[in-house]
Structure formats: structure tokens, C-alpha cells
Amino acid sequence: MRLPSFEKVLREADRTLRRFPFVLGCAALGTAAILILIDHEGPSEPSILFKALFGAILGLPLLTALTLVSERRGWSRGVAPAVQIAGVLALVAYGFTVPRELDGAPIYHVQRLAMLVIALCGFLVVGPYLRRGQINGFWQYGKVLVFRVLLAGLYSGTLFAGLAIALAALDNLFGINIPGKRFPELWCLIVGIFATWFFLAGVPENLDELDSHEDYPKGLKVFAQYVLLPLMFVYLAILYAYLGKIVIQWSWPHGWVSMLTLCFAAAGVVTILLLHPIREKTENMWIKAAMRWFWVIMIPPIVMLLLAITRRVSEYGVTEGRYTGYALGIWLAMMAVYFIFSRSKSIKAIPGTLAAISMLIGFGPWGAFHVSETSQINRLHTILVQNGILINARVQKAPGIVSSRDAVQISSILRYLSEIHGYGGIKGWFTESLALDTTVSGGRPKHPSDITKMMGVEYRLEVRVTGARYLEIAADPYEALDVRGYEHMLIGQRSNPGKPDLAESSSNLTCSFDTGTNVLTLVFKSVDSTGDSLRLPLEPLADTLLSHYDEGSGKRIPAEQMTIVAAGNRLRVKVCFRSIHFRSEQDILHPFAFDADILYSFGESKAPAE
Length: 610
Fold this sequence. Notes:
Number of helices: 16
Number of domains: 4
């Protein structure tokens, strides 16, 4: 195989630029934006670059798809650029919805970007083949796109690794200072310009002739038959065994079954797409039968998926994850009905309908973000009214003690709103601003614990322990520790099973943890041979945490609630646990490992710092 000459590479690059000028311009804009953002030093500042970056990310699949649709439909030289310009204007309009600063902005902007990327990638795959027929051409076109993406990733990774090693060599061998930010900048430059250009250069120009191609990589069949199919059987066995358990015990399905169902569906759909071109061959007739029965077999797991999400929604309201899971469940049900009863059974329906649903739920009052925010605000409204905190649409101090369950629910909803949507939907309930900096429009929201203080409610979060074999509870990483009254700090002390001794400090404080008694022992020996020791049992703290945080999962606990403060004759300590790991023994959870920072002072005995 002859390697292409440098002149040919330049000609291909020029041809790609002439074919996809808007796409490459979009890639250049996005790359420039992210390079400037990475290079910025100091505190984060509002910038139009975030808008440009998000718009450029969406522009890559959108403008590429519009170019290919224009070529396939044979639009004139006047119409094709006009369509591209319309796409650019749509991206500009989207940019106005993106905040000027992402640090502290609601996360739903990033989640919506991901949904739109999925939708537009689906449009890129299906758009040129919206008309009926040419199923083989559609499959060949999709194969080219996937292979080109993989090849671009391989080349980009190799190029980055080589150049990164070269930069490291300049730094270590010649003493040339290479700032650490140069490496992510290099990666973004390679991905943004080289990978995009390389991918576009391999996109077929004549899509009509692809329908006559019969080549089928043998590796695809091997991958689908010997990797994906065994995975499907494993998922299938687990799902149907769990279904039998539900029927026997007559209980609601557990929420985790949703993930397994979606994994099973994904493996099956990918297998169907990979094996589609060879399903009619005599030696592969089993494939056609398997494709038909796959959708029949999917019906019970789809029902379990929808029931599991319905139960979570009834208990905790709608969130983006539950909304998306429900949408995927409905989509799978639609695909099952289509492939079971339809005569055409076109594989175009899979990426096409998935792209349509992704676009549909990304915007509007029916979308995942608006429905989820409204659901959680309504839950919060109901709880606050029941506790006499919200009266005439105004928040006041709780007139009495708020139950543990309601405090957990209030804290959880406020944390969700602060992270995902911001407090825009509830700010009208308060006379005081809910932003940390009132001088900046759309400033960083206050911590949920500050909002619960306005309500006279204890800030409490939750951790699920029911049925857990292993459990980890963690402190909120965004809360500062109170270090007043202590002179020294040991950072990142970690205990592991079978390794009782923690790292020793240079100031002669040694730490050890006995997993049998769950006692942390701290011994201090000074240079004048005086010393002191403390034995700190973890069980009381563990019992308190587990009793207070027992109704949910994945939440962060206020840092000060995960501390042990103690004092001996001369040694004073404050152990700040970052995470505690539990193991279930006979349905009882015991701490067996942890990560902690240890504050201490050695001198005259004083009351421990509060």
C-alpha cells in the first residue's frame, strides 16, 4: 500500500475545506474559544466564549448534516449556503440561552447540550437517507461514519501522546518550563482541528453509490456474535430471574433494574444494527429470527422499567434522569411494536426516532428540564405549606419542629434545585436574595443549608442503607472545614482493611484503626519524651449518620456532621472524615475503612474547638 504524498494530503485538505467551510469554521471558533478559556488565569469571569463553545459543539453535527442533505437532494449553489446560514442563525439563537459563566451555573445547560448533541448526531446519520429505500446504502454510510470516528480518535490519541511526550522532554531535559495547561490545550487543538478535519475528509461524496456496496467487515460479525450476544444472554437471564422474583414476592421492581434494562436494550439494538446486512444469507437465518424475537422478549423488561420509574416518581417526584428513563422506556415500547407488527422494519427508525425524542425532550414546557423543575418545586411547596413555612407564597421561620423526614425532603429538593436549575423558580417566596453576590446578575446561588436556615429547618441529607452489602457515605466536598483552635493538620489519612496503621506525620502523631473494635487510636510523642493518646470509637458517629441519612442515595453530608472532636491531657484532635466505608454483616453495617483529615494540637489541655 502506497502512502499518500504530501501534495495529495494538501489537496484532500483543500477539498474538505471547500466542501465543509461552515463546519470547519465552526470547529475553529469552538477550538479558539476553549483554548482562551483554558489559558485564562485567575477567578472565572463571565464571557461570551461559553456561548460560542456550546454553539460550536452543536454546529459540528448540525452543519455537517445540512451539507450532506444539500448534496443528496441536489440543492442549487444558492439554496445550499442559505440552508447553512439558517443553521448558523439557529446556533446563534441557542447561544443566547447559554449562561456567560458556567462556574456555578445550573447544570441543566450541560445536560441539555448532551441531549441536543445526541439528537443532531442522529440527524447526521438519518438526514441524508430520510426517503424510503436504500437501506444498504444507509447502513454502509453509518459504517463509514463510525469507522471514521474511531480512526480519528486513534490518530488523535497517538498524535497527542507523541507531542505530549515531546513537551515533557523539553521540560525535563532542557529545563524549558511547560505549564500544565499546555497539555489540555494541545488535546483540544488536536481534537478540534485535526480530528474534525480528518473525519470530514473521509465522509463519502456520492452517497447514492453506497447502496451497491456489499463489503461487510468480518470483525463486526465476530464482535456482535461473540461479545454482544453473550452480554445480551447474561442481561436477559438476570432480568427474567428478577422478574420471577417480583412475581413470586409480588413486590415493586427496584429502581436499579432500569439501568440493567437499558443496557440489555442497548446491546440488543447495537447487535441488530451490526448484523442487519447479513441477516438474509442462508448461513445466517438465525439472525433474522433472533431480531424478531428480541423485541418480543423486551416487552416484560420494558414493563419493569416503566413500573420502577413510576414508583420512584410517586415517591420523590420527577427528575431529569427519571424523565429520560421514562422517555427511553416509551421509545423502546414503540420500537417493539414497530418491529413486531410492521412489514418494512426499517433500521432507519432506530436512530431517527431516538434523535427526534432527544430533541423533543430538550426544550419546551413538555421537556425534561421544565417538567422536572416544576415537579420538585411543587413537592417543596406542599411540604412547606404542611409545616406552616410557606404562607401566602412567602417563606417564614418554621413555627414548630420539622420532622426528620420532611427536613430531609426539603434539604434534598433545595440541593437538587441549586445544582440543576438554580433558585429562579422559588426566589419569589423569599424577601432576601438567594444569590451569594447580589451585584452580579445570575450570580452563584447560596448553599442549600443557607436556604434551610431562612426556613428554620435543619439541613439534612440522606443515604440509603437498606439491603446494602457495601456503603460509602461522604462529606460535602464544597464545604470548608473549621480549623480554629488547632495547630497542625494531617491531610488525606486513609485506612484500609488489613492495614491498620495510617501514615505517620513528621510531628510524631501516629494513627491506627482497629476494624475489630472500630476504634481509631491517636498517639503523640513529643521530643521531650512526653506524650498523650486518644481512643476514638467510630460506632457512635456511624450510628448517628446512618440514623439521620437513611432514605436516599448518592447525597453529600455537611462536613461538620462527619467529625469527631476529642481532648486528652495535652492532645486535642478533630477528625474530619471525608468518607466512611461500611460493610454489612448479618444486616448490620459496620465501618471498615475511611478517608479523613486530622487536625490536632499538643499542649495544655483545653476544651475542644466547636
